[in-house]
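Dear support,

We are seeing what looks like truncated structure output for some complexes. This example has two components. We would appreciate it if you could run it in full and send us the complete token output so we can diff it against ours.
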Amino acid sequence: MDVSNIQDPMLPRRYRVAEVWEELDDVATMSLLPIDGPPRPFKAGQFNMLYAYGVGEAAISISGDPAVPERLIHTTRNVGKVSAALTRLRAGDMLGVRGPFGSDWPVEEQKGRHMLFIAGGLGLAPLRGAICQALADRLDYEEVSLLFGARSPNDLLYRSQVAEWGAFSGANVEVTVDTAARGWTGHVGVVTTRLERILNGQDHANVSAFICGPEIMMRFTAQDLVELGVPTDKIWVSMERNMKCALGFCGHCQWGPDFVCKDGPVFRYDQIGRRLAMREI
Amino acid sequence: MSAAPGEAYVISSPAPLIEALAAAGWRVIGPRESDGTISYEELWDPDDLPRGRSDDQEAGHYRLTDGRPDSWFDYVVGPQSWKKWLFPARRKLWSAEKTADGFQIDDRAEEYPKTAFFGVRPCEIAAIERQDAVFDNGDFTDTDYTRRRAATLIVAVQCARSAATCFCASMNTGPHADEGFDLALTELDPEGNHRFLLQIGSADGAALADTLPLRDATEDDKAAARLAASSAAAQQTRRLPADIAPRLKGKENHPGWQDVAEKCLHCANCTLACPTCFCSDVEDTNDLTGDNTERWRVWDSCFSVDFSYIHGGAVRQDPAARYRQWLTHKLSTWHDQFGSSGCVGCGRCIAWCPVGIDITEEAISIARDDG
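Here is the complete output from our reference environment:
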């Protein structure tokens, strides 16, 4: 096979940071502009491998609106060596990007249904593009709901945009925190405690749910949705695993027969529910 | 005489073939004795081959021994495999240099001259084909692997003997290969009418054969080669059942995983010795000024805890979960991913396991019952 015309998929393209927003104490969002070619289209739920010079790469979901591909948006939390370097980047800094990679949230396919987004903590970042997409065609969906949970009021991501979605964009928004703080007047409790409320009066068989958050949160949320009568093939989750290449070569992200980088990160629940309930797979 | 693919001839020694390869500009890699093992290194001369050597292999055991003095290929596979040439243990992916406004990437690839693999065993042909499917997976192509592979010629050696650890016959990957080579040799009767059946597998192989002193293979020569293959197969005592892949499904909670984990040292020897294991990590190295950085790809193993690390901790903390990942991937989920087993029955993981864990024994025991 002649590979002289194929670009090495391990080679990043260079981008420059255009803007940075401090979101939370350890979380920042940045917009990126390409240096080595045109912007690449992406789908909501996909991810990029972001490279910080001299430090390394990390898989970071795209949190921008797929309708605006020229602004590549990523939200990172400082949890390790690479994400710390990425979170430190400032406007004008250069970084490397490979992608977009992976499966996407099937937003379009849910038209006519009640689109329910359920996010836990930073899990809102991979869902943001899908929420923007659904709200842009709000009237094509019977209902668009967001159930958003975080550990505490200080951990609520994209606070003003979440408020906007509820106030102006026609989304039914519920926010809950695990632990309240002084001044918090909203709900307290994990997201599963709000499921019945957000689905109250709805035809549960007509609900399509996109869930993103810690694995344990996704596991219990999906189980509860199924108990409430949401079809198992209308629930999707987004998985996180160690990734070094995002190409299916490095082997790190294997989860049973799936490569999370290629077959995921977005999986339909009826295909992976058994595995999601198992430990250390 | 003009040789053609599918034909078979007889040569009296493999030495002229090695010389012909070198004369045609091929770098020749082949078996050499080193560190008490058979290792695949550059051959400069036919005498570099470990002539007259054999091996004694068992679970957790490998020793080179004296074989029949004139034989060229009495030994079988050692701890290393051809993957170290196609998928090197360490390879620089690219380097970058800091510039005034960021960095510049340099992706010049390492040279890989046209290379002949001399002495590839049938199970190893199968292993190379397994890795071909991994590194060109339909979505992405590993350009470096594919470039190396395209520049590689395969001279196979059909096995006339099995080690006690071999189980290729049950994996349908040996001891005889019908295809996947440019040329294939079968050593016949080293203690009598010593000769080699030469099978032509490709046009490149035919062109090389044309430069050798050939004689047509008779029915006797071909029958002797078939007998060598069937006697090698008959020597094999280990096996894996053909339906092992489906039978390992749903066995995640079988107590056998804990039993084997109590023996397993998670040393990763099996994954390094395995000719199909493909997992890798990436390392970044910087010079002291920070102005130059390099990204390297290095072999990795699913037996290390860090392998599955994500924020919050490794996914597979329990050694039993790591052994289960390795074995079920190799024998079961590999089928889902690539349409074949990840195991070719070479037996390396059995011989090179320091505590002698036998993949065939563990898989059969876990597949046998519902736990």
